[in-house]
């Protein structure tokens, strides 16, 4: 009786690992394929049947940086994404503190309005946004991308920081208040330092979403003055040569590494960040 | 954590207490939240009003200042436009099947690993697809499905899953399926991460008690853990559902709406009409319809799912 139960447990564990291995295979196979694409010559990319063991070469890695304005793409991505996160923090920290610590008429409505902007269909605002930036003479300008990324991510940054601020014990704030500190001072010296993991999580998520953005970047940037990596790689369609997948694979892998490191940093807080703070850790 | 007190008396006393403690002026919380709200209003309300205005005109990008007022004409023609109606149907089919498949897979995977000793290792492997840029993911799957040299066809042929080489982009159902497969690959990790996090955060005492009572592990999951997960599932599905419905990058890179518009989503329709055909009036009318529907859905989702979970 006892041993048959143990055997059932044993076989169920094997079945479980088999299922997980299947998913890991589906997960990783395209990534392995991407790596081999980046390590082969262009003639070995689009052949029938596919070549699984290519002649390994680093040509694509060299060509990508030689043939495309990679440094401009990297610079634009960096400026627009980092700048947007700074704008977000500047706006979101006071807003999150207001939503987390004060009681006032309309507070919930304001909070839920901010949250609901996360649910707007980007394509539905694309046309007016394009016209707006055209009228501001900000087309093909990284500053425009910065402003758009900031707007896209403001809701998630505010709500994630808010969810961490709510958990700062009120007693600690009260103690500072008794010592004569005013609200702004308490925010800067007590609440903000104590909710720093929320600030870091929100910043990293916003950074990743900004680097990934495609639709608006495609619309309002069209030269290497403003194009980012995300849209730049869509330009690797060299006319008669067709789509240059080898170089696209290089860009994909180049951006994967920093994304992976950033995600490792917030691993523990990831679920909470992705649900905008609805999930406590 | 704290909601607005029900009675005005307690509101007054709370305010009085707050003033005694901190001497904060009453306008301070509004001043703190105002810049963020102003920024968002600028970037959300402005486009809505502008699109609403443009939607009543026949208007072209290429000829500025040549607008003619047509009233509700753009809306009327939108409802007679086979392309627009088809794009609504496509969006429902593609995003619906994507989210359904992602939900089932993510929940199953989360249930399998959340009490596993190597859960951290599985999590790192399973989240990898999410960390590639969406445009790169789209190109990667385009290559895997490319006609004549498809790795997917080749592997399936060798393993005997499907004997015939499939024309992924040429066949309407398969073209949609290729978008769904790419979306499932990229975004199942999103739901998986949320579900694993929520399951791990749950108190394990209830599960232990059920096990002591003789329940099998799948029964424990189904009857004890899952019901507690319901609010998180709702929020995760709302967030993923919204993103799936707005799918643009994959369509732009992988199919451009082909074959014969069978993969054209609403987002791609607005882009094509507005920015390729320069028909600003029609694109604006479609934008307004989409905004009205999504703002309604967002209001409902926020009040129904986020509010209870937050308090």
Short description:
The complex is a heterodimer of chains A (281) and B (311). In chain A, helix 1 packs across helix 12 and helix 3 packs parallel to helix 6 (142-165).
Which descriptors would you attach to this protein?
heterodimer; A: 281 residues; mainly alpha; 13 helices; 0% strand; B: 311 residues; 2 strands; disordered N terminus
Structure description:
The complex is a heterodimer of chains A (281) and B (311). By secondary structure, chain A is mainly α. Helices cover 71% and strands 0% of the residues of chain A. Chain A is built from 13 helices and no strands. Chain A has helices at 2-38, 59-67, 70-101, 107-116, 122-135, 142-165, 170-178, 183-194, 196-212, 215-220, 229-232, 245-265, 270-274. In chain A, helix 1 packs across helix 12 (245-265) and helix 3 (70-101) packs parallel to helix 6 (142-165). The longest helix of chain A is centred in the first third of the chain and has 37 residues, at 2-38. The radius of gyration of chain A is 24 Å and the shape is flat. The model of chain A has no long low-confidence stretch (mean pLDDT 91). By secondary structure, chain B is mostly helical. Chain B has helices at residues 8-22, 28-54, 73-80, 82-113, 119-127, 134-144, 151-159, 172-201, 205-212, 217-245, 249-255, 266-276, 280-310, and strands spanning 57-58, 68-69. In chain B, strands 1-2 form a two-stranded antiparallel ribbon. Chain B contains 13 helices and two strands, in the order ααββααααααααααα. Classes of the chains: A mainly alpha (281), B mainly alpha (311). Chains A and B meet through helix 1, helix 3, helix 4, helix 5 and helix 6 of A and helix 1, helix 2, helix 4, helix 5 and helix 6 of B.
């Amino acid at each position: 009786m006892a041993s048959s139960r143990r055997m059932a447990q044993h076989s169920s564990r094997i079945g479980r690992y088999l299922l997980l291995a299947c998913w890991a295979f589906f997960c990783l196979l395209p990534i392995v394929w991407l790596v081999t694409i980046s390590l082969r010559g262009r003639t070995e990319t689009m052949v029938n049947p596919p070549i699984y063991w290519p002649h390994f070469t680093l040509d694509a890695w060299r060509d990508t940086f030689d043939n495309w304005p990679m440094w401009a793409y990297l610079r634009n991505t960096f400026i627009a994404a980092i700048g947007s996160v700074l704008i977000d923090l500047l706006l979101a920290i006071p807003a999150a503190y207001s939503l987390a610590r004060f009681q006032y008429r309309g507070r919930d409505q304001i909070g839920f309005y901010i949250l609901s902007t996360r649910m707007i269909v980007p394509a539905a605002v694309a046309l007016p946004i394009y016209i707006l930036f055209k009228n501001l003479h900000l087309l093909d300008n990284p500053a425009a991308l910065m402003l758009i990324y900031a707007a896209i991510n403001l809701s998630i940054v505010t709500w994630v920081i808010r969810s961490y601020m709510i958990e700062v014990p009120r007693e600690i704030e009260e103690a500072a208040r008794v010592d004569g500190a005013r609200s702004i001072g308490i925010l800067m010296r007590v609440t903000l330092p104590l909710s720093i993991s929320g600030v870091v999580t929100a910043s990293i998520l916003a950074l990743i979403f900004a680097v990934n953005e495609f639709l608006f970047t495609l619309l309002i940037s069209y030269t290497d003055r403003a194009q980012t990596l995300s849209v730049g790689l869509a330009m690797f369609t060299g006319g008669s040569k067709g789509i240059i997948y080898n170089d696209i694979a290089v860009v994909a892998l180049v951006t994967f590494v920093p994304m992976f490191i950033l995600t490792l940093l917030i691993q523990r807080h990831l679920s909470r960040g992705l649900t905008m703070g609805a999930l406590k850790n | 954590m704290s909601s607005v007190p029900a009675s005005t008396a307690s509101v007054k006393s709370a305010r009085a207490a707050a003033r005694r403690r901190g001497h904060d002026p009453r306008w301070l919380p509004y001043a703190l939240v105002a810049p963020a709200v102003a920024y968002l209003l600028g970037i959300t309300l402005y486009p809505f009003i502008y699109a609403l205005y443009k939607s009543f005109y026949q208007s072209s990008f290429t000829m500025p200042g040549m607008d003619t007022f047509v009233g509700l004409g753009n809306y009327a023609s939108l409802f007679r436009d086979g392309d627009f109606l088809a794009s609504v149907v496509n969006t429902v089919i593609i995003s619906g099947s994507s989210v359904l498949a992602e939900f089932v897979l993510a929940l199953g995977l989360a249930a399998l690993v959340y009490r596993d000793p190597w859960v951290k290792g599985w999590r790192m492997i399973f989240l990898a697809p999410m960390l590639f840029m969406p445009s790169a993911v789209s190109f990667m799957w385009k290559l895997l499905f490319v006609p004549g040299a498809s790795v997917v066809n080749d592997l399936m042929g060798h393993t005997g899953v499907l004997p015939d080489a499939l024309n992924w982009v040429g066949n309407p159902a398969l073209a949609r399926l290729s978008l769904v497969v790419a979306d499932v690959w990229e975004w199942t990790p999103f739901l998986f991460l949320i579900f694993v996090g929520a399951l791990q955060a749950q108190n394990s005492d209830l599960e232990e008690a059920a096990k002591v009572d003789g329940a099998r592990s799948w029964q424990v999951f189904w009857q004890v853990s899952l019901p507690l997960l319901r609010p998180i599932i709702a929020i995760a599905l709302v967030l993923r559902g919204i993103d799936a419905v707005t799918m643009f990058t994959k369509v732009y890179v992988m199919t451009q709406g082909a074959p014969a518009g069978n993969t054209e989503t609403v987002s791609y329709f607005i882009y094509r009409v507005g920015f390729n055909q320069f028909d600003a009036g029609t694109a604006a009318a479609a934008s307004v319809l989409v905004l009205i529907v999504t703002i309604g859905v967002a209001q409902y989702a926020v009040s129904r799912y986020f509010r209870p979970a937050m308090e």
